[in-house]
């Protein structure tokens, strides 16, 4: 067992295999101490996230080592095979989930080459294998399946290397291989696995209990099909899986359903709310406007990331300026701005990116609360001159329906409220914490235009890279790529080379965190954002410190970035 540094908010426990990682996860969970916010199991690791305001990293390290010093003495988990480590008996009643597959993946030939066989034999061997879910990660409902137990040649499937460069879009239902794992993509998302087939089985539905079709310990059989067979028993009518809201939208009322609700009472988080409640109306939503709060941490074990506002400081400030609780839901507005119609008496504040903001055509000072004096007052946010994301808070917050404890939109997982559209009406909530502060000036600098410095600390896989790669990372001037969104920000610059002994090596998928700098096999780094995959298989060379992570949200493509080694103890 090794305990590895993971930036300034986490440690990574590395075990000798899947069975050891599952025992470590169980023991740490049973003995969890205050301050430990999340335990994320991986293929052979456990990521331990911590709130350092409660428990410091030094104390966390001592606790982890103390708990796991008894790991070898613990009893094997039920269902672990004699070959070390494939869990198998955890599914209730020993249930097996059957998933129909059309073997039409565009990487079948590459898999056949890696296995040294024909494409037809890849299909036969894959379908003949019984699989078991080791962990759920990457995205909600994404199962990491390994061959179950022993016998029948099931454990003889060779590992399959990930793609050198991940695809930006893998379709929902894609059946794929990477390293020793098989997985099924629950929805369209980026991915670097080798695609061998497709299915219409619904892997994730937030309204289902449990939401994931496959959970840790579930056995899975893939059934070849000539056409994709839809399992209607796993689907629900109405909204797309994972998206909830009134009338299929995440807002209180829309142009389509406004009349249908004219004499009804809406329910928000189990509480009835009169139809006459104050609302914001979206006149112009811009290119992307999302409802965000501070996220849904603590659910990574079922593949659900924290998400939440990208620029947390700007989100919190906007809420404080109107007297809200800092966690109240507001709007995250991308780059070109938006226009809102306000109810009389509404207090609003706009923070984050810097650009023209007006209320009924009168200029509004940057990061300053302003009140609508009449119904229909128009708050107009223009294109950002600096930064990328505006944050809009209304006194009381936005009371859309929460999903798994949060009103945030997770763009990777498609959880939470849909992006808002023109005509949507957002109900104003009651998340008031105090009076609107009497202020004249908020001394907050606008985001920089074309450069930024981000502090970093060593990541758990620094030893995979050459000393020269580490030196280049810290001394190069990087450029923000056009491949930048809430999932991650890719950096263009020099190649970060691996040590010879790690060249071409596959990493068992392990827990990820916002700010982690993953390096793909082509040597290109990507800094993960709030909607990052829960787990990943590219090594993390460094981690952006929590104090400077918010700057990432405001970096435009083409901006120059320097990564600076943080000093002092985290």
TrEMBL record:
Pfam families: CT_A_B, CT_C_D. The keyword Hydrolase applies. It comes from Microcella alkaliphila. Signal peptide: none annotated. Residues 231-263 are annotated as: Disordered. Residues 234-243 have a biased composition (Polar residues). Residues 1-214, 301-570 form the Carboxyltransferase domain. It comes from the Bacteria. This is KipI family sensor histidine kinase inhibitor. The keyword ATP-binding applies. Keywords: ATP-binding, Hydrolase, Nucleotide-binding. One of its GO terms (molecular function) is hydrolase activity.
């Amino acid at each position: 067992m090794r305990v590895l540094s993971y930036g300034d908010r986490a440690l990574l426990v590395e075990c000798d295999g899947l069975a050891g990682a599952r025992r470590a996860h169980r023991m740490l969970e049973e003995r969890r101490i205050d301050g430990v916010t999340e335990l994320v199991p991986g293929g052979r690791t456990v990521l331990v996230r911590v709130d350092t305001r409660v428990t410091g990293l030094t104390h966390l390290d001592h606790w982890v080592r103390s708990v796991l010093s008894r790991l070898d003495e613990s009893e094997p988990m039920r269902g672990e095979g004699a070959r070390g480590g494939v869990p198998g008996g955890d599914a209730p009643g020993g249930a097996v989930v059957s998933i129909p597959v059309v073997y039409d993946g565009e990487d079948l030939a590459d898999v056949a080459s890696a296995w040294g066989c024909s494409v037809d034999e890849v299909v036969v061997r894959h379908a003949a294998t019984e699989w078991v879910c080791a962990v759920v990660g990457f995205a909600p409902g994404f199962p990491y399946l390994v061959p179950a137990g022993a016998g029948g040649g099931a454990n003889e499937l060779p590992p399959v290397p990930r793609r050198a460069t991940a695809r930006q879009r893998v379709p929902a239902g894609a059946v794929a291989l990477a390293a020793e794992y098989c997985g099924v993509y629950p929805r369209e998302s980026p991915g670097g696995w080798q695609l061998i087939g497709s299915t219409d089985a619904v892997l994730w539905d937030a309204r289902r209990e449990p939401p994931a079709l496959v959970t840790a310990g579930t056995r899975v059989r893939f059934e070849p099909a000539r056409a994709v067979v839809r399992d209607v028993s796993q689907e629900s009518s109405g909204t797309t899986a994972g998206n909830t809201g009134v009338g299929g939208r995440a807002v209180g009322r829309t142009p389509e359903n406004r009349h249908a609700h004219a004499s009804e009472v809406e329910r928000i988080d189990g509480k009835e709310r009169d139809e006459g409640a104050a609302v914001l109306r979206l006149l112009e939503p811009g290119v992307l406007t999302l409802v965000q709060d501070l996220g849904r941490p603590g659910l990574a074990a079922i593949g659900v990331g924290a998400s939440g506002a990208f620029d947390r400081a700007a989100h919190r400030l906007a809420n404080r300026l109107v007297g809200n609780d800092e966690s109240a839901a507001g709007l995250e507005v991308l780059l070109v701005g938006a226009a809102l119609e306000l109810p009389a008496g509404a207090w609003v504040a706009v923070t984050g990116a810097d650009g023209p903001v007006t209320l009924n055509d009168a200029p509004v000072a940057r990061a300053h609360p302003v009140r609508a004096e009449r119904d229909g007052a128009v708050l107009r946010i223009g294109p950002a001159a600096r930064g990328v994301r505006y944050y809009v808070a209304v006194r009381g917050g936005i009371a859309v329906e929460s999903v798994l404890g949060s009103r945030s939109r997770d763009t990777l997982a498609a959880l939470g409220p849909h992006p808002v559209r023109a005509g949507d009406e957002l109900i104003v909530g009651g998340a008031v914490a105090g009076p609107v502060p009497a202020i004249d000036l908020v001394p907050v600098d606008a985001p920089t235009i074309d450069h930024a410095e981000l502090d970093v600390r060593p990541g758990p896989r620094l030893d995979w890279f050459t000393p020269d790669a580490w030196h280049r990372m810290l001394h190069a001037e990087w450029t923000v790529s056009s491949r930048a969104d809430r999932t991650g920000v890719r950096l263009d610059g020099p190649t970060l080379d691996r040590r010879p002994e790690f060249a071409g090596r596959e990493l068992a998928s392990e827990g990820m965190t916002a700010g982690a700098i993953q390096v793909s096999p082509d040597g290109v780094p990507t800094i993960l954002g709030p909607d990052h995959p829960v787990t990943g298989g590219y090594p993390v060379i460094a981690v952006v410190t929590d104090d400077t992570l918010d700057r990432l949200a405001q970096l435009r493509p083409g901006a120059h970035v320097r990564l600076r080694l943080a000093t002092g103890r985290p």
